[in-house]
Each structure stands twice: as C-alpha cells, then as structure tokens.
C-alpha cells in the first residue's frame, strides 16, 4: 500500500471540515483562519508502542488516545480545540487496511465530540509504532490559564478520579483483565471544564505524569507550596481496597489520568459552583506561603516520595 493511498483511503475524510480551515489534507500545508480576537494555542505529544501504551492495545484505542492526550493539553490552557496534525511511523505488519481503518476510527471518536479536524500529517515506515500529534486551538486574547499564577490561600482542585489508569496498567502488565481498562485507553479530555475555568482558575495543568509531579510544576512556576489532603482525592472504589501506600503510589505517581489540576481562590471556587452547577470540581488541598508539597492523611503528615512518570 502506497503512502498516498493509505492517507486518502483512511485519513482523508476521517474528520469533518472545520469552519476555520481554508485548506486541509491534500497539499503541502494546511491553511487556517484565526478567529478575530483570538490567539493560537499549540501543543505536541509523541506516543511510542511499549512505552506510552501496551503493545496489545487495540488500533482504535491507540488512535483515540493519541488525540485525547493532546486535547487534554489544550484543555489545561482553557483553549478551544480546533485541529490536529499527525505523524505516523508504521511497521510493515501494521500497514494494512484493517489496522488503519480502526486506527482512523479511533481518531474520529476523539475528534468528533469537540469538532476537531485532522488537517494534515505524514506517514513513514518504522520498526516500531510511534505517533506524533500536534494539536491546535484558539483562546481569546489574554485568557490562557498558565501554570504560573497560584497564590497562597488558593484551593487546589481536580476534575475527577485519579489513579485509575495506573491501576489498570499494573493489572494489564500482570496479565490480568481489569474493569478500569477504559481509563487507560480512553481518557476523556476535560475540554469544556477547561474553557469554563477561564476567569476562575489562577493556575492549571493536566495530570499526565502523576498528580504529585504535575502539581509540583504549578508550585515551582508560581513560587508557592501546597498542603494536599490525601483523603479528599477522588478515586475508584477498587483503589480503596489496596493498602494505603499502594493506593497513593497510583494516585500521586501513576500518571496517565488526563484530569485537570488547578487552583482558584475560595471566592472564585464558590462563584464557579454557582455559575456552573453541572461541572463537578473536587477540592483536595490548599496553596500555602511556603516551599514544597506537604501530604496529609487523617490530619497527620505522611512521607511519600514523589516520582511521577519518567520519560527517560
């Protein structure tokens, strides 16, 4: 199968056209129109088989997740997703209609809820499956939510349950079936919540490398510390069946959650709950005028090394 045949057959119409696309797949470059009064937001992630997802992951799940992790980065800035570009390094045994069809359907499943268009990309042969996705989004000028901005007294919140993907991966690597497989393969990027938090959140990040490590990026960028209440962090009932140290390792260091972690003042927290009653947010701690991260369990400090996901 030639590169061009593969691209047009499976990816040329994988997603519907977006109103801001002037020229999509089919030329040397895509051309887009930036909405008036908006800034362009861009991010990029690379996923490699065996490192970012198990080799036995389905093509549909691989396609979905390769997009979802990038949309999660846009959500962490409060941006509106617009389009993606994708580079695919494909081993010979996967360069076939069956794999590419299911993979493209996974891309579509991730893009469709947010009206995101695949506007370009590249394919090449490789010894191992690797995917690089660039995601583009828009945000009104000056409204991006950065990691820098957390202030002493702010509440620390998350958007949903933490540690599920890590728990699922540990089960899979042991050769077990897991009821939490969808948390690993099909994370839901918190796009609508990210947009709603514009004007409310003082700092934000998505949880990809572990809650402890990613919250640490906010603390470092903002020059503050935090007190985290481990008992308040939402998770699944299956994790509560584990010994505390095992549970906390999944929650703090596991990663792959793609929930949002953000800070906001108590007043803005109350205002957000009033203005967006259908969007759940969960307070798990407080920003303090000190350095470092203090972990609390039953009102007592506990020591848990923060490692997070290591890329090398």
Main attributes of the structure:
312 residues, alpha+beta, 60s Ribosomal Protein L30, Chain: A, Phosphoribosyl-aminoimidazole Synthetase, Chain A, domain 2, 2 domains, seven-stranded mixed β-sheet, four-stranded mixed β-sheet, 13 strands, 32% helix, 26% strand, globular
How would you describe this structure to a colleague?
The chain folds into 2 domains: 3-140, PurM-like, N-terminal domain (60s Ribosomal Protein L30, Chain: A); 154-301, Alpha-Beta Complex (Phosphoribosyl-aminoimidazole Synthetase, Chain A, domain 2). Helix 3 links the parallel strand 4 and strand 5. Helices cover 32% and strands 26% of the residues. The protein has helices spanning 3-11, 59-77, 97-111, 164-173, 181-185, 191-196, 211-222, 237-240, 244-253, 266-275, and strands at residues 21-23, 31-32, 38-48, 80-90, 117-125, 130-140, 155-158, 203-206, 225-229, 260-264, 282-288, 292-297, 300-302. Helix 2 (59-77) runs parallel beside helix 3. With 312 residues, it is of the alpha+beta class. The radius of gyration is 20 Å and the shape is globular. The strands form 3 sheets. It has a 7-stranded mixed sheet, sandwiched between helices. The protein has a 4-stranded mixed sheet with strand order 3-6-4-5.
């Amino acid at each position: 199968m030639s590169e061009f045949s593969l691209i047009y057959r499976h990816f040329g119409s994988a997603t519907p056209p977006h109103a801001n696309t002037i020229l999509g797949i089919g030329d040397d470059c895509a051309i887009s129109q930036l909405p008036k009064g908006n800034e362009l937001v861009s991010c990029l992630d690379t996923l490699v088989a065996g490192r970012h997802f198990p080799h036995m992951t389905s093509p549909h799940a691989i396609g979905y997740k390769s997009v979802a992790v990038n949309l999660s980065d846009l959500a962490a800035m409060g941006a509106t997703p617009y389009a993606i570009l994708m580079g695919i390094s494909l081993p010979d045994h996967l360069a076939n209609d069956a794999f590419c069809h299911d993979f493209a359907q996974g891309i579509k499943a991730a893009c469709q809820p947010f009206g995101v268009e695949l506007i370009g990309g590249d394919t090449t042969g490789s010894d191992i499956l690797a995917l690089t996705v660039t995601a583009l989004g828009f945000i009104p000028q000056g409204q991006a939510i950065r990691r820098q901005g957390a202030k002493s007294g702010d509440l620390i919140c998350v958007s949903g349950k933490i540690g599920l993907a890590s728990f699922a991966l540990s089960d899979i690597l042991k050769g077990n079936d897991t009821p939490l497989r969808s948390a690993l393969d099909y994370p839901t990027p918190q796009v609508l919540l990210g947009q709603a938090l514009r004007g409310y959140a003082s700092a934000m990040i998505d949880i990809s490398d572990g809650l402890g490590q990613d919250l640490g990026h906010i603390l470092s960028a903002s020059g503050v510390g935090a007190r985290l209440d481990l008992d308040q962090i939402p998770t699944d009932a299956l994790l509560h069946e584990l010994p505390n140290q095992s549970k906390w390792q999944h929650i703090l260091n596991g990663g792959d959650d793609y929930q949002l972690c953000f800070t906001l003042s108590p007043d803005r927290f109350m205002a957000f709950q009033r203005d967006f009653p259908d969007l759940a947010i969960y307070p798990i701690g407080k920003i303090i005028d000190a350095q470092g991260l203090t972990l609390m369990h039953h009102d007592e400090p506990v020591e848990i090394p923060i490692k997070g996901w290591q890329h090398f």
